[in-house]
C-alpha cells in the first residue's frame, strides 16, 4: 500500500477533478502490475495496473489507494475490471466519499466473491487524497499557502524589490510544488507588481496548473505575461459582481475564464472563491500570495497547509510583510499549525505546517 500511495502522488496536479490514485497488483509475493491515474483523469490506476499484469492478475491481490469506482462514466467501473480480471483480494484504505461510489465498489467486489480488506494506511491515504475528499465533503479544494520570505518575514524591500530573496534551489522546489497542484493562485496586487507566468518550468509536466488570479475589479495589466499566454495556459479570473463589463469582455476575448464570486465587506469572499473553484473541478490549490490574499485566506480559516521558504537575510520593518493585516488582538485568535517537515534547500530553510 505504501508503494501504491507513492505511485498515486505521480498523478497529483495532473488528473483533476479525479483523485490521484495508485494501484499495485501482487501475485505470489511478486509485483506483477502497477498503475496510477493518468493525466486528464483517464485511464484510472486499476486498468493500467491490470493491463501490465495481464493473465497474472487472476488470483492476485490488488492494493488500491481508494475504493474502486462502481459507476459507468467515460469508462467502465474499475471494480468491474478487477472482477473480470479474476483478482481474488482487494486492499484499500477506505470507501470513496463520492456519492456515486461510496461503498458501492466494495459491494460489487464482495458480491462477485472478491475478498475486500479496508483500513490499511488510511491516515496516510487521507492526507494524500485530502483535496479530492475535501471537495466532495465541503465543496472546496485543499489550499496550500506558500510564503518565501526573509528571516524577518518580508517579501520585498520598501521600494518593492523582491527578486530574489530565496535561492535557485528553493525556486526550483516551488516549481515542483506547483506541479503537484491543480492550480496556482495569486492576488491582483502580486499580478500587477511581479508580472509572473505562474507556470511549471523544467519539470517535464504534461498538464500545466490553472493560473488563478483573484481580482475584484479585473483591473489587471493587459500587456502582462498572464494576458499574453491566456490562450496557451488556462487563466481563470475570480472577480466581483460589479466588474467592468468592457474589461470582462476583453479578458474573455483573449482566452481567460471569468469566475464570478461574492463580496463580503467590499472584498471578495474567499469562501465563495474556493467554492467556485471547487465547482469547476479543482481539488488542490497552491496559493503564492501576496500578503492581502494570504491574510484573507488565513482569517477565513481556509488554509490547510503552510509552506515557508525562509532566507538568511533581514530586510527590516520598512519591508513589505509576507502577510497583510489580520486584526488579531490576542494570540488565541490566531490559527495554530503543526510542523510536519523542515529541511535545508540550497541554504534556505523549507518548513511545512498543517492546520491543527
UniProtKB/TrEMBL annotation:
Coiled coil: none annotated. Pfam families: dCMP_cyt_deam_1 (PF00383), RibD_C (PF01872). The keyword Oxidoreductase applies. One of its GO terms (biological process) is riboflavin biosynthetic process. InterPro entries: APOBEC/CMP_deaminase_Zn-bd, CMP_dCMP_dom, Cytidine_deaminase-like, DHFR-like_dom_sf, Eubact_RibD, RibD_C, RibDG_C, Riboflavin_Biosynth_HTPR. Pathway: Cofactor biosynthesis; riboflavin biosynthesis; 5-amino-6-(D-ribitylamino)uracil from GTP: step 3/4; Cofactor biosynthesis; riboflavin biosynthesis; 5-amino-6-(D-ribitylamino)uracil from GTP: step 2/4. The active site is at residue 46. Substrate binds at residues 162, 178, 198, 201, 288. Its EC number is 3.5.4.26, 1.1.1.193. It comes from the Bacteria. Its cofactor is Zn(2+). Binds 1 zinc ion. Keywords: Hydrolase, Metal-binding, Multifunctional enzyme, NADP, Oxidoreductase, Riboflavin biosynthesis, Zinc. It catalyses: 2,5-diamino-6-hydroxy-4-(5-phosphoribosylamino)-pyrimidine + H2O + H(+) = 5-amino-6-(5-phospho-D-ribosylamino)uracil + NH4(+); 5-amino-6-(5-phospho-D-ribitylamino)uracil + NADP(+) = 5-amino-6-(5-phospho-D-ribosylamino)uracil + NADPH + H(+). Residues 1-116 form the CMP/dCMP-type deaminase domain. NADP(+) binds at residues 148, 164, 190, 194, 290-296. One of its GO terms (molecular function) is 5-amino-6-(5-phosphoribosylamino)uracil reductase activity. Zn(2+) binds at residues 44, 69, 78. Converts 2,5-diamino-6-(ribosylamino)-4(3h)-pyrimidinone 5'-phosphate into 5-amino-6-(ribosylamino)-2,4(1h,3h)-pyrimidinedione 5'-phosphate. In the C-terminal section; belongs to the HTP reductase family. In the N-terminal section; belongs to the cytidine and deoxycytidylate deaminase family. PANTHER family: 2,5-DIAMINO-6-RIBOSYLAMINO-4(3H)-PYRIMIDINONE 5'-PHOSPHATE REDUCTASE (PTHR38011:SF7), DIHYDROFOLATE REDUCTASE FAMILY PROTEIN (AFU_ORTHOLOGUE AFUA_8G06820) (PTHR38011). This is Riboflavin biosynthesis protein RibD. It comes from Roseovarius litorisediminis. The lineage of its organism: Bacteria, Pseudomonadati, Pseudomonadota, Alphaproteobacteria, Rhodobacterales. The gene is ribD.
Amino acid at each position: 500500500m505504501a508503494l501504491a500511495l507513492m505511485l498515486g502522488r505521480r498523478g497529483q496536479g495532473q488528473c483533476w477533478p479525479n483523485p490521484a490514485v495508485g494501484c499495485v497488483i501482487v501475485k505470489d509475493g511478486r509485483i506483477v502490475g502497477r498503475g496510477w491515474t493518468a493525466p486528464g483523469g483517464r485511464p484510472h490506476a486499476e486498468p493500467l495496473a491490470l493491463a501490465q499484469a495481464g493473465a497474472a492478475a487472476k488470483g492476485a491481490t490488488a492494493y488500491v489507494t481508494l475504493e474502486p469506482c462502481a459507476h459507468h462514466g467515460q469508462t467502465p467501473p474499475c471494480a468491474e475490471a478487477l472482477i473480470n480480471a479474476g483478482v481474488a483480494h482487494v486492499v484499500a484504505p477506505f470507501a470513496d466519499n463520492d456519492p456515486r461510489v461510496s461503498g458501492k465498489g466494495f459491494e460489487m467486489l464482495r458480491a462477485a466473491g472478491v475478498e475486500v480488506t479496508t483500513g490499511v494506511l488510511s491516515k496516510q491515504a487521507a492526507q494524500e487524497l485530502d483535496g479530492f475528499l475535501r471537495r466532495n465533503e465541503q465543496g472546496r479544494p485543499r489550499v496550500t499557502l506558500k510564503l518565501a520570505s526573509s528571516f524577518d518575514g518580508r517579501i520585498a524591500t520598501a521600494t518593492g524589490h523582491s527578486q530574489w530573496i530565496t535561492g535557485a534551489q528553493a525556486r526550483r522546489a516551488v516549481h515542483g510544488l506547483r506541479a503537484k497542484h491543480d492550480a496556482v493562485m495569486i492576488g491582483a496586487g502580486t499580478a500587477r507588481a511581479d508580472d509572473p507566468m505562474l507556470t511549471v518550468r523544467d519539470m517535464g509536466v504534461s498538464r500545466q496548473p490553472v493560473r488563478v488570479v483573484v481580482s475584484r475589479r479585473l483591473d489587471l495589466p493587459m500587456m502582462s505575461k498572464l494576458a499574453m499566454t491566456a490562450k496557451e495556459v488556462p487563466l481563470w479570473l475570480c472577480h466581483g459582481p460589479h466588474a467592468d463589463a468592457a474589461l470582462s469582455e476583453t479578458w474573455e476575448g483573449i482566452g481567460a475564464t471569468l469566475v464570478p464570486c461574492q463580496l463580503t465587506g467590499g472584498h471578495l469572499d474567499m469562501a465563495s472563491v474556493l467554492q467556485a473553484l471547487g465547482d469547476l473541478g479543482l481539488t488542490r490549490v497552491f496559493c503564492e500570495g501576496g500578503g492581502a490574499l494570504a491574510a484573507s485566506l488565513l482569517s477565513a480559516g481556509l488554509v490547510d497547509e503552510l509552506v515557508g521558504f525562509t532566507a538568511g537575510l533581514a530586510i527590516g520593518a520598512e519591508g513589505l510583510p509576507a502577510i497583510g493585516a489580520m486584526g488579531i488582538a490576542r494570540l488565541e485568535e490566531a490559527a495554530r499549525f503543526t510542523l510536519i517537515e523542515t529541511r535545508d534547500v540550497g541554504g534556505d530553510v523549507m518548513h511545512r505546517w498543517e492546520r491543527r
